[in-house]
């Protein structure tokens, strides 16, 4: 009975979000390129201009060079598109174009730090392998104001503040965590225009829907996303652990 009720809720909520929608125009553009200091050309993701719009030039100017990416003592924000073809379905559901399903993490001292219901710290090499198929942009936030030991202490504190119990798909997700962490570790505070559009993707996700559908959609999406995050974390933990062990063996 509980399973049937759960299934019915999912079906009804999904149908409510999807009904009456005629279609969504395609936002993605052909990738542009950024010139590295060493002369190499780095492809930029197709979501860059649709997401940052008039601030796209600022973002391009902050794109990390290969030298910066290789520097352990450089704060790098990574904005991934983890949605793929799901973005088009979500665009239909919310009745407006969605340029990407964003995930933000921060790299520093050879670690990539992110939040998906819990704070996770992995070697950069592990996340490069795990996220290899996701379009992304690397943003150079400059040198850190924390030592590696201070960063570890900060992450320990954030682990108690950013948990599955405090997760909110709309207002307290991985993008908000990444923006907060960037401000805490970078010597120069990131410009507001850098993370604001990324966080607003979820904050304003349902604003094109009628109020009654927004209310229903928020309740359903929050519950379902928490369930999905727990399942995803469980499903990927083993692979991440194996990759991390492999990285550690190669170093030693």
Automatic annotation (TrEMBL):
Keywords: Hydrolase, Protease, Signal. PANTHER family: DESUMOYLATING ISOPEPTIDASE, OS06G0107000 PROTEIN. One of its GO terms (molecular function) is deubiquitinase activity. Belongs to the DeSI family. Residues 1-15 form the signal peptide. This is PPPDE domain-containing protein. GO terms for biological process: protein deubiquitination; proteolysis. Residues 73-222 form the PPPDE domain. Pfam families: Peptidase_C97. It comes from Prymnesium parvum.
